[in-house]
Sequence to fold (273 residues):
Amino acid sequence: MSGITININPTIFHAGPFSLRWYSVFVMLAIIGGLWLGLKEGKRRGILQDHIMNAALWGIVGGIVGARLFHVIDKLDFYLQNPHLILSINQGGLAIWGGVAGGMVACLIYVKSKKIDVGTFLDIGTPALLVGQLIGRFACIVNGDAYGGLTSLPWGFIYVNPEAMIPPQYFGVPTHPYPVYEQLWNLATLAFIWRLRTRPQWKGALFPAYMGIYSTGRLLLTFFRQEDIIFMGFQQAQLLALAGIAASAIILLYMMSRRPKRAQASVNVDIRR
Fold:
């Protein structure tokens, strides 16, 4: 049986009722990494640092609330039986889709209230969001809460720590390293978005472009992930991905239709003698 053994305790240490988990550490690193890049991009685009910091704060709070809300709704039966665990985000359970939706709504509220150009702000936040997602997925690698199906490939993850959150049937056997697949997809998406960010014709379009590319990745990569089938053979994340692809296409087409057409010079040639 070949694979990569993951024998990391998700809990770093306990101190009385307090416990520090790797999940919390990587979430914090994701926030710091995204904020660092957002500040650099904001400076390049002439946005005040205070606006970046304030919008980031709104986005972080909204993102955590949205991510947890999506997760709780997804696992509603469990949390109805264990309501005391609803706020235990340090143990994992933050849905990416909810984080993106909640963070965006919160940021847009702040940006609109300050009368800042929404397109410019989304262009600043999109690469920062991808950096946050890249770092944040390390938390899932340690936790074992975003697991793939069984595999015989040599890069399969074998979880052997008894504290890992992977289900018993996948404990000690190679599974697809789904978080790594998504990290590689996000890295390629970041490289693509990074090349577009300085092109004026893409102003305001970076976020819908990201949404379409990321959604396509989730649609395809989630076939390697083990979650409940919701509708027509698709998992919940895939149905949300289809909605994301559709929304991205509609927004990009709308933006293209609103873009002013270049004036074409007309030359009248008088052929009369």
User: Anything to note?
Assistant: The mean pLDDT is 85. Residues 26 and 252 are 33 Å apart (CA to CA).
